[in-house]
Amino acid sequence: MAELYFDIRANWEEVVRLREECKRLEEQILETAKATGSLEGTEELQKRLTEATGKLNEFVDSAAEAGEKVKKEVNDELKASTKSMEAFSSVVSAVRESMSDFIKDQVSSGNMSEEQADKLRSRDGRRSADGFPR
């Protein structure tokens, strides 16, 4: 994560530098055009502005791609986690149902009293619809 922070910070500083350079070059082009009454003599400034703008656009595109990649990875991890939680929840429900059936069988066969069954089903007096604590 520190490496990612470093890359983002370094890129951000470069983006800020490029924005400032573009602004400065635009101002120089305008000043030169006002002083001479034409754009003649601004070709080098225009070339540098085009290059700086191109680099800035590369950073913007790169940041957008990185953002999409991170978004996709987060969504994939979220989906995997949700699937895992659903599977675990299914196992818990199956165990609850199995325990409920086991307790009913033990009570009906006389191997367990209803009082003992209630102790197994309850915790702090709270019970769900199937008799097990939630």
List keywords for this structure.
single chain, 134 residues, mainly alpha, 81% helix
Describe the structure.
- The structure is a single chain.
- This protein has a domain at about 1-90.
- It contains three helices and no strands.
- It has helices at about 1-35, 45-110, 115-120.
- Helix 1 packs antiparallel against helix 2 (about 45-110) and helix 2 (about 45-110) runs antiparallel to helix 3 (about 115-120).
What's a quick, concise take on this entry?
The protein is mostly helical and 134 residues long. Helices cover 81% and strands 0% of the residues.
Total helical elements = 3
Count the strands?
Answer: 0
| Strand/helix succession | HHH
Instruction: Decide which structural class fits the backbone.
Output: mainly alpha
Largest sheet: none
Relative strand content: under 5%
Low-confidence stretches: none
Please give the radius of gyration in angstroms.
Answer: 34 Å
- Summed over residues and divided by their number, the pLDDT gives a mean of 86
Shape: rod-shaped
Give the helix level as a range of percent.
over 70%
- Cα distance spanning the termini: 38 Å
SSE layout and pairing:
Layout: H1 2-36, H2 43-108, H3 114-121
Helix pairs in contact: 1-2, 2-3
